[in-house]
Amino acid sequence: MSQMSTFKPIEISYLWDSENFEKAFSKSYTHQFKNSIRRYIGWFFIALAQFGVVAALKGGSIGLLMLATILILYWYGIKKWLVHRRALKAYTNSALQNSDITLTATQEGVRQEDMLIVWEDIQGLVPVEDDILLYHKEKAFYIPSHAFSAIEEKSRLKSLAKEKGRWFDV
Fold first, then answer.
1. Whole-model pTM?
2. What is the bridge-based pairing of β-strands 109-112 and 10-16?
3. Of 48, 75, 92, which marks where a domain is finished?
4. pLDDT under 50 in the chain at which residues?
5. Would residue 165 be called left, alpha or beta, if left means φ above 0 and alpha means ψ between -120 and 50 degrees?
6. What's the DSSP call for residue 1?
7. 29 plus 88 within the same structural domain
8. For residue 42, how many C-alpha atoms fall within 13 Å in the half-sphere facing its CB?
9. Could you read off the pLDDT of 87-107 as tens digits, one per residue?
10. Cα 47 to the center of its chain, rounded Å
């Protein structure tokens, strides 16, 4: 008679507060930007804008200089501020604001209360510094490192995600 292996579920628990929201936003924005084709397209347009600045200075075209300057300011500062503002508004209007989040990772998937996300529906778990981003459909779920009761639990999640083909080191 063969023995079935028993898998002890991995418990993940943390408070979804403004501090975790800010960390989640910063880390996911940076990760998504670094791993997006939009990054290179943006660089192309910024390079064009910078050539526009040089051309405007040589040719004395104030309109072209203003347009190029606005594009550069948007790309390096305003864009992130606008995305952050939209995300902050969604967070403050969310029913999950300041709530306890409890996830359980099993062989079947990741469960939150009655909802189960099966491993096949998870695009990936990505480590960002000490924390983890869990990508499901078009959303990224932030899991802070302090959400695990012990470092071994985090290692078990990493091993399970690797076994399921869902762990992506970047």
1. 0.72
2. unpaired
3. 92
4. 1-3
5. left
6. -
7. yes
8. 14
9. 889 888 888 888 899 999 999
10. 27
Q: How far is CA 88 from CA 54, 74, 91, 140, in A?
A: 37, 19, 5, 15
Q: Domain ends where: 71, 92, 113?
A: 92
Structural domains in the chain (count): 2
pLDDT at res. 134: 92
Whether 170 maps to a domain, the answer reads no
- pLDDT at site 2: 45
- Quote the domain boundaries for residue 68: 21-92
Six-digit token pair at 35? 């791993």
In this structure, are 86 and 144 located in the same domain? no
Whole-angstrom CA distances from 14 to 38, 84, 149 are 32, 22, 10
Percent of all residues in the chain with a pLDDT value above 90, rounded to a whole number? 37
Q: Is 125 exposed, middle or buried (0-12, 13-18, 19+ CB in 10 A)?
A: buried
Residue 106 to residue 37: CA distance in whole angstroms: 33
